[in-house]
Amino acid sequence: xxxxxxxxxxxxxxxxxxxxxxxxxxxxxxxxxxxxxxxxxxxxxxxxxxxxxxxxxxxxxxxxxxxxxxxxxxxxxxxxxxxxxxxxxxxxxxxxxxxxxxxxxxxxxxxxxxxxxxxxxxxxxxxxxxxxxxxxxxxxxxxxxxxxxxxxxxxxxxxxxxxxxxxxxxxxxxxxxxxxxxxxxxxxxxxxxxxxxxxxxxxxxxxxxxxxxxxxxxxxxxxxxxxxxxxxxxxxxxxxxxxxxxxxxxxxxxxxxxxxxxxxxxxxxxxxxxxxxxxxxxxxxxxxxxxxxx
Length: 294
Hints:
Radius of gyration: 20 Å
Shape: elongated
CATH class of the largest domain: Alpha Beta
Number of domains: 2
Mean pLDDT: 94
Helix content: 40-55%
């Protein structure tokens, strides 16, 4: 993937100021090629980014310190590919978000991003064998139709979604809530290594950023933004899964839910979504019938 000068400057800015694109858009409106990036006065930087002057001083110092840092080369050594929003390789659906990532960092098979059909499968970290069995009916038809399975590499349903995609010969994308020098949860180390080799790990955070409580809700909008539709297996009524559903509804995505036994608290989320209009599914063919663009 070829990087332009503006790509390289945006990657440098994002390293020292890792925020969504809407937080830095005014700089690019004023200076589309970021030619002034290393020459801003502190007052101008504070005004353009709408940040306190003290923060602008620190940011200016960091920018000048890294003016000659070859970020693309350093990332290449770690097999990390940065994709700034200014580059043609950036996924178009993410540009439609209110707060699109300024830069994506990926590791693995970049061609997976070009696949037209992506389906998110999400659910509880406490997901039971019921989810795994449900996925044995849902994932094979999706894989046979060329769909890429998107999830968040969390424990439980996310892990099952990635493993099912791999088991049935498909491709899968994990959207992470941290930088690529870290991994959460640790139990998924082998799965993450396999995905970094043959599938795709993706994050909006520079490699050094550690996981935090606020980073995981933020990544949910990317899971939704990348996907044509969202499938929920088991989930509590109030959870991170429902946060992703909220983003999907805002984005006009098709919501599908796996009906669950009324005796399980993990059925409350999907059963309530069905009551509210989500499509109940027990086969991947049903998900394909309800693609948002059909």
